[in-house]
């Protein structure tokens, strides 16, 4: 199997005349650091994964769902054999909608939805969205489960029919519903205790409005004083509630939004690093490069070299089946 893995390249191969790719991955294989402009959703059906996105580690247990945002460096480790459902879709034409951009910026680098902590009715709704997408793509809901947890390269991608224009519209509309649902409930998915900890529903709505405001004005000279004044809270009260709601301080949140936007610019243009730094809200290219490396693990110039569309990656056999650290 080593030769089979070594000769296998993982890349975004959408269906003919489509910007979508849905497949059942039965490979017990690792994928080195890479990024692409597609949104990527992984539903771990039979086996767990460890995924590193922009230096953040996620242990995706069986039943969990993870949404990886476009233009985010990620590395995937297969912990044990078993099938996973993948959905990849190009949203580059749809991100002209500022609402989609806002959700991706707030969600980035990834949104991990844990089956063990997600309210059952919300989890089932997400699963239903993914089942609808798979049924539309394959023509019927395929059997996801593998035989004895085994699979090979040929079994990794399954397709039963060509997509019609209306199938594509139906799939994208379902994906939009899924993303919207994730956006509305993001604090709950990111931190199960966030909603109750952040206060009443009025505060939650206000803090969500603040996050949207930051996402739309992050290139400006924002400060904690300005944002707390916008929210109508004292600086210290706002900082406490904002951290409870988002899991980050205001400045950590603002910097991550800027890094996310910079990743988008790096993926879509030939702008210089200095131009991207200023357009993303950084005071200098030096500050930008330092922050970008700290967030992603790579300087901006190397980030461009990890583009999967331009440099297909090699699939590697797993080194160990041990459960990774969850820190």
Concise description?
By secondary structure, this protein is of the alpha+beta class.
Shape, principal axes of CA atoms: globular
SS class: alpha+beta
| Cα-atom radius of gyration | 20 Å
**How much of the residues is beta strand, in percent?**
15-25%
- State the distance separating the first and last CA atoms: 32 Å
Helices and strands, in N-to-C order? Answer: HEEEEEEEEEHEHHHHHHHHHHHHE
Defining traits:
single chain; 327 residues; alpha+beta; 5-stranded antiparallel β-sheet; 4-stranded antiparallel β-sheet; 14 helices; 11 strands; globular; disordered N terminus
Task: Give an overview in words.
The protein has 327 residues and is α+β, with helices and mostly antiparallel strands. It is built from 14 helices and eleven strands. The chain has a five-stranded antiparallel sheet with strand order 2-9-4-7-10. A four-stranded antiparallel sheet has the order 3-8-5-6, with no helix packed on it. Strands 1-11 form a two-stranded antiparallel ribbon. Strand 5 and strand 6 form a beta hairpin. Helix 2 packs across helix 5.
């Amino acid at each position: 199997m080593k030769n089979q893995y070594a000769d296998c390249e993982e890349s975004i191969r959408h269906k003919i005349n489509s910007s979508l790719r849905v497949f059942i991955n039965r490979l017990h294989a690792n994928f080195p650091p890479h990024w692409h402009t597609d949104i990527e959703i992984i539903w771990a059906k039979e086996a767990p994964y460890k995924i590193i996105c922009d230096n953040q580690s996620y242990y995706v247990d069986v039943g969990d769902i993870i949404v990886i945002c476009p233009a985010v460096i990620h590395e995937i480790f297969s912990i044990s054999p078993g099938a996973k459902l993948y959905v990849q879709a190009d949203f580059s034409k749809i991100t002209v909608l500022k609402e989609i951009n806002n959700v991706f910026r707030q969600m980035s680098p990834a949104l991990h939805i844990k089956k063990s902590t997600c309210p059952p009715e919300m989890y089932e709704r997400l699963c239903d969205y993914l089942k609808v997408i798979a049924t539309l793509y394959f023509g019927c809901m395929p059997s996801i489960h593998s035989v004895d947890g085994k699979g090979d390269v040929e079994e990794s991608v399954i397709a039963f029919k060509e997509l019609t224009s209306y199938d594509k519209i139906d799939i994208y509309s379902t994906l939009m519903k899924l993303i919207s649902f994730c956006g509305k409930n993001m604090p709950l998915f990111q931190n199960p205790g966030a909603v109750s900890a952040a206060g009443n529903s009025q505060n939650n709505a206000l803090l969500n409005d603040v996050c949207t405001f930051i996402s739309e004005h992050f290139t400006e000279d924002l400060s904690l004083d300005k944002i707390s004044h916008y929210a109508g809270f004292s600086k210290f009260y706002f900082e406490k509630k904002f951290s409870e709601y988002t899991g980050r301080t205001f400045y950590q949140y603002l910097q991550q939004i800027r890094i996310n936007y910079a990743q988008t610019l790096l993926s879509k243009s030939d702008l210089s690093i200095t131009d991207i730094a200023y357009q993303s809200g950084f005071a200098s290219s030096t500050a930008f490069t330092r922050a970008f490396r700290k967030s992603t693990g790579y300087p901006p110039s190397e980030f461009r070299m990890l583009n999967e569309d331009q440099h297909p990656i090699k699939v590697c056999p797993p080194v160990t089946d041990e459960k990774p650290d969850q820190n």
